[in-house]
Amino acid sequence: MISYILAENLKHKRTFLKKLLVIMPITLILLSLFLMPSYFTTNSYNWWYVIIMPATFALIPAMMDRKESRKLNYRAVFPLNINLKKLWVSKIITALIYMSIAAIIHMLGVYIFQFFIGKQLTPTYRFSTLLFASILLIITNIWQIPFCFFLAKKIGFIASIVLNAVLGLALGILLADSYFWIYCPYAWANRLMIPVLNILPNGILIDATNPLVSSTSLLIPCILSISLFTLLTIIGAKWFSKQEVK
């Protein structure tokens, strides 16, 4: 499996996809810095998980799929004597690594820039808090990777990005502070940031005494996301293994 992952990573050497892993978080950080420096940390994280992460989780698989399908439509892959299930899983793991890199760059950027800004009108979070928040965001969003790979393969590059970004933005905000949040995977990440960072999906800060803080489980959404990720990966691998050159 490691050789599959290394090969998959090599396909994207010196591509725009890898530049995107730096461009997306840094651009967001700079926008937060120049637009509303007094709310820098709050906005940097709120905009990240509400807007940028759903788009990025859709964009990375879509760009990886387009690398294979744009010119040859997987004709360079399917005839080879390789395990297509392992190939599919390696793509998902590679995308997860890329997304984790982008999340780490975002977290480090936010933490470092806090010191340059100085006192804000919103809380300045400790490194451990930001790290914990970023880990939770990765875990509660990983199910999107196999889902977005499937979308990209079935409905195409643009449609898969737009669909996932719109669903993530709409459902993530609308349902995160509702009773039904646990039933909507897009709401899991947004909801967990309420007790961790004390930020509502709309960017409003709340205090630790708010009922949404005490009523939110951190463990259950993580278990659900990992389970859904595993299920979608297995289903997707079986489906992909039956594909043929067209």
What order do the helices and strands come in, and which of them pair?
Layout: H1 2-11, H2 16-35, H3 40-69, H4 84-117, H5 127-141, H6 144-155, H7 157-176, H8 185-197, H9 211-214, H10 219-241
Helix pairs in contact: 1-4, 2-3, 2-4, 3-4, 3-6, 3-7, 4-5, 4-10, 5-8, 5-10, 6-7, 6-10, 7-8, 8-10
Tell me the number of structural domains: 1
Give the termini separation.
26 Å
The backbone outline, from C-alpha atoms, is: globular
How large is the count of helical segments?
Answer: 10
The major sheet is characterized as: none
Instruction: Please give the radius of gyration in angstroms.
Output: 19 Å
Q: Work out the strand percent.
A: under 5%
Contiguous low-pLDDT stretches (5 residues minimum) are none
**How would you spell out the order of helices and strands?**
HHHHHHHHHH
Helix content: over 70%
Would you count the extended β strands for me? 0
Mean pLDDT across all residues, rounded?
86
Task: Look at the helices and sheets and give the structural class.
Answer: mainly alpha
